[in-house]
Automatic annotation (TrEMBL), chains A, B:
The entry's keywords: Coiled coil, DNA-binding, Transcription, Transcription regulation
Coiled-coil ranges per UniProt: 81-111
InterPro entries: DNA-bd_dom_put_sf (IPR009061), MerR-type_HTH_dom (IPR000551), MerR_fam (IPR047057), Tscrpt_reg_MerR_DNA-bd (IPR015358)
Lineage top rank: taxon: Bacteria
Xref: PANTHER family: HEAVY METAL-DEPENDENT TRANSCRIPTIONAL REGULATOR HI_0293-RELATED, REDOX-CYCLING DRUG-SENSING TRANSCRIPTIONAL ACTIVATOR SOXR
Protein name: MerR family transcriptional regulator
Pfam families per the UniProt record, alphabetical: MerR, MerR-DNA-bind
A molecular function (GO) term: DNA binding
Organism of origin: Marinobacter guineae
Boundaries of every HTH merR-type domain copy: 1-69
CDD domains cross-referenced by the UniProt entry: HTH_HMRTR_unk
Record's keyword annotation contains Lipid biosynthesis: no
Amino acid sequence: MKVKDIAEAAGVNPDTVRFYTRENLLKPTRNPDNNYQQFDAEDLRRLRFARKARQLGFSLPEIRQILDQADDHHSPCPMVRDVFQHRLAEVEREIRELQQLRKRMTSALSAWQDMPDGTPDGHTICRLIEHWEDPAPSEEASDRGEE
Amino acid sequence: MKVKDIAEAAGVNPDTVRFYTRENLLKPTRNPDNNYQQFDAEDLRRLRFARKARQLGFSLPEIRQILDQADDHHSPCPMVRDVFQHRLAEVEREIRELQQLRKRMTSALSAWQDMPDGTPDGHTICRLIEHWEDPAPSEEASDRGEE
DNA sequence: TAAAACCTGTGAGCAACTCACAGGTCAAAG
DNA sequence: CTTTGACCTGTGAGTTGCTCACAGGTTTTA
């Protein structure tokens, strides 16, 4: 299989295949005649695996680590379980934050229903946004030193 | 006010102030003696406005557009309302996607409870992730040409 | 008066691709 | 048999919104 073939088989952009190869997630052999990269079924498995892992929120370094461990015949699964748990917690945090944001947005929208547009007068840039109230910073975030 | 002063007043990193200045969101005057940037209350308003708008999901180009329109004494509010509506819809889409992701993650987790780790054997990289089922691609996304 | 803390502009780094470019290779059509 | 078009190669840059690093100038503090 050449780049385009494996890319189509996995449903990704050929440039993504090249990128993953550069990043050592895929290790194709070379055709000595023309220096083309040759991918086999194992590479396709790795590529599909990488894409699934990406969907789950694993980073490329994490995926490379899993793949490398698998190459060394170490089971990466305990690590996967661990990262996965963290990832799930983070997804839930993201959901909570977005829900808060949505709440603030909808209440701002309804408040804006009654406000005139108003031309900027040197004091007010846009009342719609200046009317916005800062959310109270969340404790989890500041606990972990985030901004 | 110098960079550090306005940064502290707005609760941002001084480098963010410099960055926004480079991006023409802030237009401080210069002290001719030492070439230092001088920010006034109006700049602080703009900076705070920009930060609020960022929290609402506006991009820097959008914010610059609003600010420039305000400079020209055009009311940016109708545009703000418009972008805001789009932004709200997008936030809601993100929430739906994350909720689907969480659902898939939790069901995968419970399925994994019963699975042994298993050492990679050349056919299986990590059963935990290979067991993962691809979600059906959402129609909205493919409708709009997203990936 | 010297060190510490600030200022300046510029350039690079982050994540995960995506695209562009210039040149080499190959399959089918004329 | 040659041309054309589609593919391949590696590399470098662009995306977003900062953040950090660097080298050198200025101001404040001890």
